[in-house]
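Tokens in:
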């Protein structure tokens, strides 16, 4: 048996939507993109959505909208995907790392000691879809007059206190990469309530153009194609069902797995579980055992971001919680085609390893 870690949920109707675009003669920044921006923004209950070609581009645009430049400091959690940090470097700014807590999200009690007169932004992620403490993050950003930028690449479909994730910041982004819960294969979006930011982000996405062939900002080609947007529009129609099915699978895992830990979740939150994560002490052995038995996994992530070769020069600190989590974490298969039979097999393999054998 070979079980994939992730599988994009592409259905017949997605392909029909694609065919319509291909026959229409308008392939980029056209009506499908506009519809997708409006529909996603409506789903999240936020005023503006700006479609782009990936989640990393969305972060770069977000920082450019805030005029982040050399000498500025941007606070990020020590446990995140590389893009969060890279976007800071694209803008010649300095990343400042803060350790996470047992939710795997930034430990808000450690942020204020990192704030200096150069701090401009807190760029936060919701690890694996698990919502962060936005009450505290908003309080800190307001108190110190620092922007809150939400990198919601992993938390599309999650909620914090009844409010959808990817909306709590002044600027928010997400990713629609093929492993994501809602995919356009490659794609991303920026969300904001602020009209000026909306206009600037839209312009930076398209070479900084403000009117035809007049370029006010340093932009880039970060345009979304109608082909990507058509897949997204079709997928968005079934997002509630997608999340419901995913929730059922997570529940089944949690009811049956023995002797594993999970990231803690805050009350009043909904975790879309972009990643289904377990924490185990002898992770490398279990991971090998799973892989040897045909089960694909991901180690998300093998080290805190400050230990990545390109980031080591920015900090001499160690972040003990992030480090320990990166030693214990495994991301298990979770996708629309994962059957109960396959879940039973994964559960059996893990329980055998952890000594929680149930058969
Ligand atoms: C936290 C985080 N930020 C940014 C990104 C970048 O998104 P993309 O792969 O669409 O560029 C990802 C991708 O998974 C991510 O996990």
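Residues out:
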């Amino acid at each position: 048996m070979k079980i994939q870690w992730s599988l994009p949920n592409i259905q017949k109707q997605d392909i029909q939507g694609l065919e319509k675009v291909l026959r229409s003669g308008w392939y980029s920044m056209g009506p499908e993109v506009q519809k997708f921006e409006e529909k996603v923004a409506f789903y999240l209950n936020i005023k503006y959505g700006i479609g782009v070609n990936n989640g990393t581009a969305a972060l770069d645009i977000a920082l450019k909208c805030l005029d982040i430049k050399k000498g500025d400091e941007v606070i990020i959690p020590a446990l995140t995907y590389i893009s969060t940090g890279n976007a800071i470097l694209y803008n010649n700014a300095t990343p400042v790392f803060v350790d996470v807590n047992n939710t795997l999200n930034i430990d808000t009690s450690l942020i204020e000691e990192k704030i200096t007169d150069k701090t401009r932004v807190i760029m936060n992620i919701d690890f694996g879809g698990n919502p962060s403490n936005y009450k505290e993050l908003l309080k800190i950003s307001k108190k110190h007059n620092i922007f809150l930028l939400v990198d919601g690449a992993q938390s599309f479909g999650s909620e914090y206190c009844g409010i959808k994730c990817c909306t709590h910041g002044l600027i928010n982004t997400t990713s629609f990469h093929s492993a994501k819960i809602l995919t356009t294969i490659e794609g991303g979006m920026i969300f904001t309530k602020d009209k000026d930011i909306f206009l600037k982000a839209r312009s930076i996405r398209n070479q900084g153009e403000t009117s035809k062939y007049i370029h006010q900002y340093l932009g880039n080609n970060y345009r979304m194609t109608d082909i990507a947007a058509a897949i997204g529009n079709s997928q968005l129609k079934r997002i509630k069902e997608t999340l419901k099915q995913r929730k059922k699978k997570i529940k089944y895992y949690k009811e049956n797995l023995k002797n594993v830990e999970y990231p803690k979740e805050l009350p009043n939150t909904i975790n879309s579980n972009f990643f289904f994560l377990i924490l185990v002490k002898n992770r490398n052995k279990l991971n090998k055992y799973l892989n040897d038995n045909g089960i694909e996994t991901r180690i998300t992530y093998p080290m805190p971001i400050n230990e990545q070769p390109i980031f080591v020069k920015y900090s001499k600190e160690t972040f003990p919680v992030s480090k320990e989590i990166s030693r214990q974490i495994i991301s298990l298969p979770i996708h629309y085609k994962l059957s109960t039979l396959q879940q039973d097999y994964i559960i059996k393999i893990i329980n055998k390893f952890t000594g929680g054998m149930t058969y």
